[in-house]
Design goal:
- By secondary structure, this protein is mainly alpha-helical.
- The chain folds into three domains: about 1-185, Up-down Bundle (Growth Hormone, Chain: A); about 195-250; about 255-460, Growth Hormone, Chain: A.
- The chain is about 75% helix and about 0% strand.
- The protein is built from 16 helices and no strands.
């Protein structure tokens, strides 16, 4: 395997495609002040991130199921097309509400791009090869964590914030062209009964529930009629969705995903990974900048230690799970991540850039082992026709974990931050310390989910070879 193999062109295309989502996740934040100066709507700008997360999470399981019915290639090309269309619209936005609406289109595209990239890797690479490839994909996120904010800051400095979105145009065109040219699938063509009702119920239910979690305590009080109504109606629709899926010939999210012990435990691990990542990326920079007046660039480098450790460990995870199994490798990774979060919690009262960087690096090493290994274990347990759903469910759980964590960790921090526009250094230290303790608790629960994984044999040569790349 490698970039010079017959699958190398597809791997490069997948890395470019992954880069679309990875850069977009980091490039916008540094340009927000300039965007607000131009378009106004300061109170609305958090929706630039919330609406993207919402539409991405809601659409993800639907795309995943459709890929099992019609193949990965058409779904990922639809996702790239939507992402391209949304980026162009964002670049020409004339107001904050318009930009928020166009970000929703981008999120719909990202909902297809991310799971399809990982699913295609599962299709064309064996279990033994996937860990190294997952390391390549993780390295894309690592590079993007540096390139994204730098580009965003540059465009903002040049008063050209619209290029934050226009930069996606050549990347989308390149990724689409490479996939059309090099990725070819063998998909059995037969008549399908698409679960339209299940898809609609899932989309509306999750929209309401995620909206309630994201906006609770922010746009409205937790005990307000808006919050109670969103949770109540969303929960009722989710129950209706489960009833519909039990009878659907081809359910959009089959319930067997939650009845198989391996898939359930790896899904819970993914939920914890999403919560941990959003917690660290949201609070580490604020903690360092607000407590000891560290410049944003240095705070970003401390956090970047996490994205350095992740691909490093992910690339070597295959050597571990081929020798000691998926479960044992996940437990080692979970233990390392737990150690890193405990270090953060224990020493939060004495802020130090070096200590935070070391702790984040340890967490990154752990995440590279537990996240990659559990995802590959889930993929390897099913055939091609189920792999899209399994991958989508895993990433969907990660998105939900992030959404829930945003609300929970934010509520914990606000107990100390209070209503002040700029909290005092002591308040930031106290609030961040409480969040770091909560993150460590979440990581402990994630480690327990990995402990509950069944011991499954590893078939190193397993591959379906349903996607045939050509040079």
């Amino acid at each position: 395997m490698g970039f010079r193999s017959e699958r190398g062109s597809v791997l490069v295309a997948i890395m470019v495609t992954t880069g679309l989502v990875a850069i977009d996740a980091t490039i916008l934040a540094t340009a927000v002040p300039t965007i607000v100066d131009d378009l106004g709507g300061f109170s609305q700008f958090p929706w630039l991130f919330s609406i993207y997360l919402l539409t991405q999470a809601v659409s993800l399981p639907i795309y995943a199921k459709l890929s099992d019915l019609f193949g990965r290639k058409p779904i990922i090309l639809i996702g790239i097309g939507l992402f391209l269309f949304g980026s162009i619209l964002c670049g020409f936005a004339w107001s904050m509400p318009a930009l928020i609406a166009f970000r929703a289109v981008q999120g719909l595209g990202a909902g297809a791009v991310q799971p399809m990239s990982i699913t295609i890797v599962g299709d064309i690479y064996s279990v033994a090869e996937r860990a190294k490839v997952q390391g390549y994909l993780a390295s894309v996120w690592a590079v993007s964590s540096v390139v994204g904010p730098s580009l965003g800051g540059l465009f903002a400095q040049l008063d050209a914030w619209r290029w934050v979105f226009f930069v996606n145009i050549p990347l989308c065109l390149l990724a689409g062209w490479m996939l059309v040219r090099h990725l070819h699938e063998k998909v059995e063509r037969r008549e399908h009964r698409i679960d339209y009702l299940g898809a609609a119920l899932l989309a509306v239910a999750m929209t309401l529930l995620i909206l309630a979690v994201l906006e609770g305590g922010q746009a409205w009080a937790w005990n307000s009629w808006q919050s109670l109504g969103a949770f109540g109606l969303g929960g009722a629709l989710l129950v209706a969705f489960v009833l519909v899926e039990r009878r659907a010939p081809e359910p959009i999210l089959p319930l067997w995903v939650f009845r198989r012990r391996l898939l359930l435990t790896t899904t819970l691990v993914s939920f914890g990974v999403g919560a941990l990542l959003i917690g660290l990326t949201s609070f580490v920079p604020t903690y360092l900048e607000g407590s000891i007046d560290v410049v944003p660039l240095l705070a970003g480098f401390a956090l970047a230690a996490l994205t350095l450790g992740w691909p490093l460990a992910a690339g070597f995870s295959g050597r571990f799970y081929l020798r000691i199994g998926f479960r044992s490798t996940a437990l080692i990774g979970g233990g390392l991540a737990l150690l890193g979060t405990v270090l953060l919690a224990l020493f939060a009262r004495t802020p130090s850039v070096a200590l935070v960087a070391v702790a984040c690096f340890i967490v990154g090493l752990g995440m590279g082992l537990i996240a990659s290994t559990t995802l590959i274990a889930a993929q390897a347990s099913v055939e091609w026709g189920e792999r899209g759903v399994v991958t989508g469910t895993n990433l969907f759980a990660r998105s939900i974990g992030s959404a829930v964590a945003v609300a929970v960790f934010g509520a914990i921090a606000n107990v100390w931050f209070g209503e002040a526009q700029v909290p005092s250094p002591d308040a930031i230290v106290s609030g961040s310390a409480a969040v770091f303790v909560a993150i460590a608790v979440v990581m402990a629960g994630t480690w327990l989910a990995a402990f509950a994984m069944p011991r499954t044999p590893v078939a190193p040569r397993e591959t379906d070879a349903v996607a045939e790349p050509t040079a």
